[in-house]
């Protein structure tokens, strides 16, 4: 079976619907057809200032959400990045194959470092995409399900895999991004020109947020001029975003939804989305809570995952170290 790997940062108290539509839904689906490795990337989360206790808590919250969303630890390897040393071991080799200018062109670094400026950002934030490449290449993943914002990082992973193979002989798999067009970029509810992100909580719909509050957020989402509910991302970005969300949470294709809203207005769209979202997250939240009520069990499950991940990733590192001329361990 082909392999899939993806990762998510434990940097918030909840995942938002951008994470879910852009990536996590595909994580769940791909379990049926692929050998899946899914990682909570805590090492990526310390590239910016953070609170240690909060990180630990959020790592468990992340695991609980993934399980509640349908990641099946029997079928998939679910693990915490820092518990598999192969990621950083491979990352160093890849750093030595990456040009300084090449790393400088990664736009996420520019975006994230913009406030303090590059001078005040950590070197870890700078090399972040190379660690991400190591995450992927360590598992020789064929496919990487992510949202549109990760496309550039995926491109770097492909470049580095190709470069390594070119220099040292066929060793690493060149991974393909798996980015679903319709949900690759979910937009901010208060600003449909920006992507939904945890750094703009006002416009993000969190899976674990109080449901009433979320319904209210949906009700006050920014829409567009006119009154017809039509899917037209160019001219009606706000309405189109809400339609995409409703499509996922109701299980109804966008064209059928659009037909059902003929003669009705934005208010009805928001009402239906609120109901569908509430119906989705209410049982999800209960399930997350159950997982979090037993942190020892959760940790044990992650330990098993890390063990399985280590077997695969260690083999790649041994191969890579041998190819570059390091003495075998
Ligand atoms: P992260 O933790 O920011 O986001 C997790 C996933 O959610 C997707 N996403 C979105 N998709 C659509 N619309 C949005 N508004 C939206 N916001 C977030 C992201 O594209 C991502 O797929 N660098 C990665 C984590 C990572 C990783 C990896 C991913 C580390 N190593 C290896 C894949 C493979 C990140 O920060 O994602």
Automatic annotation (TrEMBL):
Q: Which Pfam families match?
A: tRNA-synt_1b (PF00579)
Binding residues annotated for ATP, in chain numbering: 9-11, 18-19, 147-149, 186, 195-199
Database matches in Gene3D superfamilies = HUPs, Tyrosyl-Transfer RNA Synthetase
- Keyword Cytoplasm in the entry? The reply is yes
- What chemistry does it catalyse, as a reaction equation? tRNA(Trp) + L-tryptophan + ATP = L-tryptophyl-tRNA(Trp) + AMP + diphosphate + H(+)
User: Coordinates of motif 'KMSKS' region in the sequence?
Assistant: 195-199
CDD domains xrefs: TrpRS_core (cd00806)
Tell me the GO molecular function terms.
Answer: ATP binding; tryptophan-tRNA ligase activity
E.C. no: 6.1.1.2
Q: Tell me the residue numbers annotated for binding L-tryptophan.
A: 135
Q: Any transmembrane segments, and where?
A: none
Q: Where in the cell is it found?
A: Cytoplasm
Keywords linked to the UniProt accession:
Aminoacyl-tRNA synthetase, ATP-binding, Cytoplasm, Ligase, Nucleotide-binding, Protein biosynthesis
Q: Name one GO biological process term.
A: tryptophanyl-tRNA aminoacylation
InterPro entries (UniProt xref): aa-tRNA-synth_I_CS, aa-tRNA-synth_Ic, Rossmann-like_a/b/a_fold, Trp-tRNA-ligase, Trp-tRNA-ligase_bac-type, Trp-tRNA_synthetase
Give the range the annotation lists for the signal sequence.
none
Spell out the family assignment given in the record's similarity comment: Belongs to the class-I aminoacyl-tRNA synthetase family.
Could you give the subunit structure recorded for this chain?
Homodimer.
What job does this protein perform? Catalyzes the attachment of tryptophan to tRNA(Trp).
Q: Which NCBIfam families match?
A: trpS
This protein is called what?
Answer: Tryptophan--tRNA ligase
Specify the species: Nakamurella flavida
Gene symbol here is trpS
């Amino acid at each position: 079976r082909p392999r899939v790997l993806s990762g998510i940062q434990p940097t918030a108290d909840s995942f938002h619907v951008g994470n879910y539509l852009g990536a996590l839904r595909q994580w769940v689906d791909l379990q049926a057809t692929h050998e899946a490795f899914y990682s909570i990337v805590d090492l990526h989360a310390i590239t910016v200032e953070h609170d240690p206790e909060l990180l630990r808590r959020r790592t468990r919250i992340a695991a609980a959400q993934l399980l509640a969303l349908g990641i099946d630890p029997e079928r998939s390897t679910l693990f915490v990045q820092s518990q598999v040393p192969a990621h950083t071991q491979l990352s160093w080799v890849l750093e030595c194959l990456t040009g300084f200018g090449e790393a400088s062109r990664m736009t996420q670094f520019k975006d994230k470092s913009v406030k303090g400026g590059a001078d005040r950002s950590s070197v870890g934030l700078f090399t972040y995409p190379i660690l991400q490449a190591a995450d992927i290449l360590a598992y020789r993943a064929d496919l990487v399900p992510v949202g549109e914002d990760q496309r550039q990082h995926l491109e770097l992973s492909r470049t580095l895999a190709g470069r390594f193979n070119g220099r040292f002989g066929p060793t690493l798999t060149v991974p393909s991004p798996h980015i679903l067009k319709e949900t690759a970029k979910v937009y901010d509810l208060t600003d449909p020109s920006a992507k939904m992100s945890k750094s703009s909580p006002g416009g993000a719909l969190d899976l674990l947020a109080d449901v009433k509050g979320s319904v209210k957020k949906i009700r006050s989402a920014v829409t567009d001029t006119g009154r017809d509910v039509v899917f037209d991302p160019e001219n009606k970005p706000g309405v189109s975003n809400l339609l995409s969300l409703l499509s996922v949470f109701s299980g109804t294709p966008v064209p059928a939804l659009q037909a059902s809203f003929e003669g009705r207005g934005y208010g009805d769209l928001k009402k239906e989305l609120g109901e569908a979202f509430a119906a989705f997250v209410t049982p999800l939240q209960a399930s997350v809570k159950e997982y979090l009520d037993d942190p020892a069990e959760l940790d044990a499950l992650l330990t098993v995952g890390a063990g399985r991940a280590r077997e695969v990733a260690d083999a790649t590192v041994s191969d890579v170290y041998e190819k570059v001329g390091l003495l075998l361990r």
